[in-house]
Amino acid sequence: MDVIQQTIAVIAVNAAGRETASRIAALLPGARLHGRTGRIDDCDVPFAETTAHVRQLFGDGVPVVAVCAAGILIRAVAPLLLDKRAEPPVIAVSPDGASVVPLLGGHHGANRLARHIAAGLKGHAAITTAGDVALGLALDDPPRGWHVANPALAKPVASALLAGEPVRLAVDAARGQSAWISAPGLGTEGAFGIHVTDRAVESTRDLILHPPVLALGVGCSRGATADELKALVADSLADAGYAQGSVALVASLDLKADEDAVHALAAGLGVPARFFTPAELEAETPRLANPSEVVFAETGCHGVAEAAALAAAGPGAELVLTKRKSAMATCAVARSAAALHPQRIGRPRGRLFVVGIGPGGPASRTFEAASAIARSSDLVGYKLYLDLIADISAGKTCHAGAMKAEETRVRQALDLAAEGRSVSLVCSGDAGIYAMATLVFELIDREDLPGWNRIEVSVIPGISALQGAAARAGAIINHDFCAISLSDLLTPWPHIERRIQAAAEGDFVVAFYNPVSKRRREQLPSARRILLGHRPASTPVVLARNVGRDGERITVTTLDALDPADVDMLTVVLVGNSETRTVTRAGKVWAYTPRGYASKWE
Ligand code: SAH
Asked: Which DSSP string corresponds to 381-409?
């Protein structure tokens, strides 16, 4: 019945929902039954963990109908909702089949799907989107990958359908996936119409819908400008009469994965960029219109633009625009009879997220960090940190390393991303504060490897231990402060000592990271002595151990009473400046550093 029918995942998580799930699958020819291993036998796709499985499907754009509590689905997909485009239908069905609830993708087929299922199960579809109740069709919000060329016509066309007037429907592309456009009144007559086409057409009476059936293959010399490539593509499509709105993806050779122009082109078209190896493109040689020995000598395949377009559009596709060239770029277009799903074509540019997860568990992590982790296939990090994100890491490949093997871990993360994978390099607190972000750039800089240079790197900020610790104990920072690591593994002690001296003279609030280790016990007493030379013995000190984690312990003491025996490597030590005070209320001691408001009050 629908664009997505072939791939709908009907999920049963336990025996109670098994029968309803089978009945739903029977209502949706082509859908596959997914069952939780150990609880459901005899299904098409077994899976081990529900949350991870649903998240994976959702991330891949697969419609999900799950016989389980809505909350399970909401929690599973929540970290992915940052990307509004990634919204296939998600439907929760109660085990008795009485309630069918479209949770997401209401305008991308979920409402229709829910109604269809509810009718089959003799249950109720709980539709919550406005307007949809009457028409069951959101013309201005078509499925993922489709574009509306003239959205202003959505209203008159929908009004005509709602008024019971006839509306014309013409489908010239993606015939097999246009059944979502169904409403009483659609036919061959009417003042208004709907036209599904990949051609660049204009109309004041027809709503033009462009389905994603064109694969745009591109190539370019190193450093070609985005403007040149965009102009070449725009001119070529216009000359051939094809609509930009029907371009499903930009495809190229993996060597081009870090070419700005290719990504700018894809971003401009609002489609993904996907890449193929030379061997994959070479396999297209028999279908090329312009095979080239020169290109083969340079790249290992006889064509880039044409081959990438064909490889992306698939075996049944035809090359509708042969290679066109500008000074530094090439493009070609292949057309598929069916809508294309870019997520399943070639590989994306590898991604490395350098993620700070905050000091503790789920509550101290940002939404952006959770989202990066959710969209990663691989997680690399120290075991303790991977344990802290266990709630969102099921189903991902975890590469846990030893604490000291930082360089090995960073190299591994870069290697995985260079293969086209999405990798999160997981750090506690903030990734740029005594953590691995620097090493990423140091290695990229020093090694200058083509594979690493192609990776798209993003650094995701996190709440650092000093912020978590200060907040728990009041507001000890809130004025000029500095952070000093007392570890002399990477920095010689005399340098550290000089910085402590400067911080003491400057009257900075100081956060000491790595204050002690099993073998290092002397640095903290030395730091204490230096600071005591410049601020009162009564200066408040916060000892914060395992902030945000199990066994969190916050103690407020004084510089004079600071005892290294109370401090370990899971503690951050915050020392106030000469103005810092404490106040006790309801038995709790708070430390705070005035910012000078008092002088204004006088
Ligand atoms: N990138 C981290 C720091 C890592 S260095 C951040 O931004 O917080 C390791 C040191 O950080 C530890 O020795 C300890 O001093 C401090 N630390 C990290 N997490 C902590 C936590 N949850 N509670 C207290 N201190 C912590």
From this structure: EEHHHHHHTGGGTTTSEEEEE-TT-HHHH
- Which atom of ligand 1 is closest in space to residue 513's alpha carbon? 15
In this structure, are 572 and 522 located in the same domain? yes
- 541 and 459 belong to one structural domain: no
Does one domain contain both 308 and 377?
no
Residue 141 lies inside a defined structural domain of this protein: no
The model's pTM is 0.81
Classify residue 421 by its DSSP letter: -
**CB neighbour class for 264 (10 Å; exposed up to 12, middle 13-18, buried from 19):** middle
Q: What is the pLDDT of residue 129?
A: 74
CA of 56 to the centre of ligand 1 (A): 31
**For position 18, which CATH number holds?**
3.40.50.11220
Q: Considering only CA atoms, which residue is closest to atom 18 of ligand 1?
A: 465
Assess whether 423 and 494 both reside in one domain: no
Confidence category of residue 86, pLDDT binned at 50, 70, 90: low
Q: How far apart are CA 502 and CA 469, in angstroms?
A: 23
* Last residue of one domain, picked from the residues 344, 379, 394: 344
Residue 1: predicted pLDDT: 37
Judgement on whether residues 485 and 429 belong to the same structural domain of the protein: no
Nearest CA to ligand 1 atom 3: 434
In one-letter notation, the amino acid at residue 579 is: E
Pocket test for ligand 1, best of 388, 434, 482, 552 (most atoms within 8 A of CB): 434
Q: What is the Å distance from ligand 1's center to 428 Cα?
A: 7
* CATH code of the domain covering residue 230: 3.30.420.180
Q: Is the domain of 439 the same as that of 532? A: no
Q: Which of 428, 514, 573 to mutate to test the pocket of ligand 1 (most atoms within 8 A of CB)?
A: 428
The pLDDT confidence band at residue 132, using thresholds 50, 70 and 90, is low
The pLDDT of residue 602 is 58
The ligand 1 atom at the shortest distance from the C-alpha of residue 435 is 1
Percent of the chain with pLDDT over 70: 95
| Same domain, yes or no: 202 and 245 | no
**Residue 277, token pair as written in the block:** 């190896």
Instruction: Say which CATH number the domain at 504 has.
Output: 3.30.950.10
CB under 6 Å to ligand 1: residues?
359-360, 427-430, 433-435, 464-465, 469, 513-515, 544-549, 569-572
134 in any annotated domain: no
Determine the Cα–Cα distance for residues 223 and 327; give it in Å rounded to an integer: 12
Query: How far is ligand 1, taken at its centre, from the CA of residue 113, in Å?
Result: 49
Count structural domains, the chain: 5
Q: Provide the percentage of residues in the chain whose pLDDT is more than 90.
A: 81
Does residue 133 lie in a domain region? no
393/179 Cα distance (integer angstroms): 37
Distance 374 CA to ligand 1 centre (A): 23
Q: What is the dihedral of CA 179, 133, 26, 185, to 10 degrees?
A: -40
CA of 447 to the centre of ligand 1 (A): 29
- Domain, as residue range, for 447: 351-463
Of 541, 572, 573, 575, which is best to mutate to test ligand 1, by the most ligand atoms within 8 angstroms of its C-beta? 572
pLDDT tens string 189-226: 999 999 999 999 999 999 999 999 999 999 999 989 99
136: in domain? no
Tens of pLDDT, residues 488-526: 988 999 999 999 999 999 999 999 999 999 888 999 999
pLDDT digits (tens, 9 = 90+) for 333-377: 999 999 999 988 999 999 999 999 999 999 999 999 999 998 899
**Torsion, Cα of 289, 290, 291, 293 (10° steps):** 170
User: Do 251 and 284 lie in a common domain?
Assistant: yes
**Does residue 560 have a pLDDT over 90?**
yes
Among the candidates 438, 463, 488, a domain finishes at 463
